[in-house]
Design goal:
Length: 256
């Protein structure tokens, strides 16, 4: 059971790209400094499929995440994230583990404290609540916390975003407790309704036995159907051996 927990968490953490950072403008991992505006809501439903192949051992998994954001005031958002995870590992065609269920819930507050001449800075602290079953590798088993620094610079048709994060990874799996995240993203308006997006990032590996930190390169598209709805898709490729070899992402965003 201990090994199963480590294997499942080893996939789930790179899948989520660590708490909170994963919940930017999908399919990007890097968050932007934008906020919704007072009294406005944003609802995202995002899916991700992960694949990892290490010789005879094949791991497949992913998530469906629901993210609700509410604009408390013009510069402050409240964010709640509930992921549903699944993970299946086979060795030589034989199933070693097969788990699915609710993952850990995340609650965030994003505060944009500066906005000047296309530059915006924000900070986003949050909590990771142990709503996932740690015995099945679906959660950490303890309440953790995190804080992210966010910078965005817009110069139409380009926008650049950077994140630096610290994650206190309280857990029952004997993983590292002090983690970090660093990433950089860019968007380019191909036409009014269509954005090309790219993302590069790295996370501290939660596995104490490894110094191989998961790094990724991601590309995708965001299509605006209307002021109230967006569709997106993306492909994420691992730059190191840690985490899934590749991932497919797709999502829908509603504004109201």
């Amino acid at each position: 059971m201990k090994l199963q927990k480590i294997l499942c968490l080893g996939l789930a953490l790179p899948t989520l790209s660590l708490p909170s950072a994963a919940w930017a403008m999908h399919p990007l991992i890097t968050d932007d400094a934008g906020t919704q505006g007072q009294g406005r809501y944003q609802l995202e439903v995002n899916g991700q499929y992960d694949h990892d192949d290490d010789g005879s051992v094949e791991t497949r998994g992913g998530q469906i995440a629901t993210i609700l954001t509410y604009g408390l005031v013009k510069t402050v958002d409240l964010v709640a994230i509930a992921p549903y995870l699944w993970n299946k590992e086979t060795d030589g065609g034989l199933t070693k583990s097969d788990e699915s269920g609710l993952g850990d819930t995340t609650l965030d507050v994003k505060w944009r404290f500066l906005e000047r001449e296309g530059l915006a800075l924000a900070i986003k602290p949050g909590l990771n609540l142990p709503t996932g079953d740690e015995d099945r590798g679906l959660g950490a088993g303890k309440t953790g916390y995190h804080v992210y620094a966010i910078a965005s610079k817009e110069a139409d048709p380009w926008a650049i975003h950077a994140n630096l994060g610290y994650i206190r990874n309280e857990n029952d799996a004997n993983d590292r407790e002090n983690l970090w995240h660093a990433s950089l993203a860019a968007t380019y308006n191909l036409i009014k309704e269509l954005k090309l997006v790219g993302n590069l990032g790295v996370d501290r590996n939660p596995d104490k036995t490894s110094e191989d930190n998961p790094a990724f390169l991601l590309g995708g598209l965001v299509y605006t159907l209307s002021d109230r709805m967006e569709l997106d898709c993306g492909y994420k490729h691992a730059l190191t051996s840690a985490g899934p070899d590749w991932s497919l992402l797709a999502g829908t965003t509603f504004h109201f």
